[in-house]
Amino acid sequence: MEVVIVPDSATGGELIAEAMAALLRRKPDALLGVSTGSTPLPVYKALAAKVRDFEVDASHARICQLDEYVGLPSGHPEAYRSVVLREVVEPLGLTDASFMGPDGSADDVAAACLDYERALAEAGGVDLQLLGIGTDGHIGFNEPCSSLASRTRIKTLTEQTRQDNARFFKGVEEVPHHVITQGIGTILQARHLVLLATGEAKAHAVALAVEGPLSALVPASALQLHPHATVVVDEAAASSLK
Ligand code: F6R
C-alpha cells in the first residue's frame, strides 16, 4: 500500500484526477468506480477541468457506482444515482449509457445485487475504484464486521453513518436505513484502489486502516490485501499516522 500525504483536499483531488486521466489516455474506455459523499468532489471537479481543457478525452470512459441507498424514490436528489449523474457523468460530458449502478428501488433487492455483480463482471471489472472512508472505517457501505470476502448485498447503516450523512438530508430521520453496497471482496477485485481521506474526523479511521491489523472491524484495512492500493490523505487525516 502506498500512502501519499498532500497539503489539502484540492491537491489530493488533482493528484487522483491526474491518475484517472493517465488511465484514460492508456485505456480510453476504462471503467472508473466512483464513490459519493463530500470527499471525492475535488477529484470530480479536477477531472472535469482536465476534460474541458482538452488534457484528456473522457468521451469513452465508463462510470460505475459503489453503493446506493435502498428505498429512495427514483430521481431523489440524494439517491447516489442522481449524485453521480450530477457530479461525475454530466460534468464529464457523458451520457447515462456510460454509467451503471445497483437499483436501489428494485422490488427484489437481492436480485438487484446479483444483477450488479454480473454487470460489473460483464463490463470486464473496475479499472480504478475511488473510495472514501467512514469515520467508523467503512468503505463503500461495508460497515464494521462486514466480511472481507463479501459481495454486493444489502447492508444496514450504523447510527454513526446515518448521523454523518444527515447533512445531505433535512434530518437524520430522512436518511435511509439500508443500502446496496459492493462487498469488500467485490471492491478488492478492482485493478487499482485509490482511497481519499481528508479532515481530522478521518484521522483515527485512516490510522487503523493503514497501520492497524487487518480486521473486519475496520473494513478499510482490507486495502492491505490489495496489490495496488493508494491512500491519499491530507495532513489533518494523516495526523494520527505514526
Ligand atoms: C459513499 C461511500 C462512503 C463514503 C464515506 C465517506 O459512496 O462509499 O464510504 O465514502 O461515508 O463519506 P464523506 O466523504 O462524505 O465523508
TrEMBL record:
Pathway: Amino-sugar metabolism; N-acetylneuraminate degradation; D-fructose 6-phosphate from N-acetylneuraminate: step 5/5. Gene3D superfamilies: 3.40.50.1360. The record marks 146, 153, 155-156 as: Part of the allosteric site. It is an enzyme of class 3 (hydrolase). The keyword Hydrolase applies. Keywords: Allosteric enzyme, Carbohydrate metabolism, Hydrolase. PROSITE patterns: GLC_GALNAC_ISOMERASE. This is Glucosamine-6-phosphate deaminase. Catalyzes the reversible isomerization-deamination of glucosamine 6-phosphate (GlcN6P) to form fructose 6-phosphate (Fru6P) and ammonium ion. It comes from Streptomyces maoxianensis. Its EC number is 3.5.99.6. Belongs to the glucosamine/galactosamine-6-phosphate isomerase family. NagB subfamily.
